[in-house]
Amino acid sequence: QVQLVESGGGLVQAGGSLRLSCVASGRTFSTYDMAWFRQAPGKERDFVAAISRSGGTTGYADSVKGRFTVSRDSAKNTVYLQMNSLQPEDTAVYYCAAGFTYSALVADRAVYWGRGTQVTVSS
Q: Quick one: average pLDDT of 59-77?
């Protein structure tokens, strides 16, 4: 069992930045591929970014490429999402997810989910 706890959300003006963190419990963090998803009010959950267990592979949704960066620190059992140039359309609850297969994870078939952190971008 893995527990994921997100933090770092908040209210920011358009053009601003936030860094989300997701801390994973347990000693097997390095065996999981990790990802971030988001869900805006009234919309489906969307893939945002993913990083492989080694950190050597990353992937991004087209809507965030060039603005968001995903990274991980195995020593801290933590995955990060650096979000720059935030826009109102980035407003959503952001969820951390973990899985055993990178492609499945990106396809929204995670094994574990966090409870989410709210990001609100004002115009």
A: 96
